[in-house]
Design brief:
mainly alpha; 5 helices; 2 strands; 67% helix; elongated
Length: 93
């Protein structure tokens, strides 16, 4: 999943197989191929490469999502909550 986040941070459109974590992270920054369907993956790649406006829209969406929803500034509190729940900590800062 690191690659998905890297592509999004670079504003690149993504084509991937439809997996839970990939869909959660990328949302509209990606096209999704049916699981284990290489033909569908290739068709989605073709579609994303031949529509520059659509590819730009996906790339912009991904970049925005990383900057405004998934960056450490937004996600750190979620991780802190997990640590507090698991280890019974009151404050991790």
């Amino acid at each position: 999943m690191n690659k998905i986040m890297e592509y999004m941070s670079l504003g690149k459109p993504i084509v991937q197989f439809d997996l839970k974590e990939g869909r959660y992270s990328a949302r509209e920054a990606s096209l999704y191929a049916n699981p284990n369907d290489s033909k569908d993956l290739a068709e989605n790649n073709h579609a994303s490469m031949h529509s520059s406006e659509f590819a730009k829209k996906m790339g912009s969406y991904g970049r925005n999502r990383v900057e405004n929803e998934l960056s450490w500034d937004f996600e750190k509190e979620n991780l802190y909550k997990v640590y507090r729940a698991v280890f019974g900590l009151i404050n991790t800062r």
